């Protein structure tokens, strides 16, 4: 990923927080003829440097998973930034957050897949009143796991960029945030928090 130095993110805490806050990504592999991409929920385990997920067994991409380095793309909020919001003439641009994770994948066995599915339910169901738990699912529902292939990705590299108008003056930055807030753009809050951190 091309990253301008002013927008590069190296702080692990910032990157890890982003991965936990944006658990839906795009897995990219190559089948020898062309790139293949699938959009999936992922679990990030920072303690062991791994991502885990699953895709439909009917999706041919799973057959390419173990033969190459895979790329997983995570994106946060984004927004068009109009040059009319600056205090001087310049070009319009786009603000965004993106993290690219590279790694080697291994297909999960059945026991590991159950652990992955149960963990995903626990993380996303939380403590809601009628939380769905793997342990309480009926056997017919549990058998649907045979329609998916689970895998883990041992992370070898992470690249991150948060382009949040860091190059703008305080006055321009505040004006950009204000205009984005008028449009209810979530990145406005991200910009404000990062400017003050």
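-> sequence recovered:
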């Amino acid at each position: 990923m091309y990253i301008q130095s002013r927008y590069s993110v190296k702080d692990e805490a910032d990157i890890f927080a982003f991965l936990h806050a944006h658990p839906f990504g795009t897995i990219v592999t190559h089948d020898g003829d062309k790139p293949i991409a699938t959009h999936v929920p992922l679990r990030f385990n920072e303690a062991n440097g791994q991502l885990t997920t699953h895709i439909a067994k009917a999706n041919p991409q799973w057959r390419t998973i173990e033969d190459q380095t895979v790329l997983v793309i995570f994106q946060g909020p984004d927004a068009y930034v109009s040059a009319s919001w600056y205090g001087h003439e310049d070009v319009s641009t786009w603000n965004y957050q993106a993290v690219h994770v590279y790694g080697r994948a291994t297909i999960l066995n059945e026991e590991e897949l159950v652990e992955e599915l149960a963990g995903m339910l626990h993380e996303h169901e939380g403590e809601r009143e009628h939380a769905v738990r793997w342990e309480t699912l009926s056997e017919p529902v549990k058998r649907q796991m045979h329609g998916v292939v689970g895998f883990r990705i041992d992370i070898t590299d992470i690249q991150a960029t948060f382009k949040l108008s860091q190059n703008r003056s305080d006055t321009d930055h505040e004006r950009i945030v204000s205009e984005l807030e008028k449009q209810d753009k979530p990145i406005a809050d991200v910009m404000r928090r990062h400017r003050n951190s």
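The mean pLDDT is 94.
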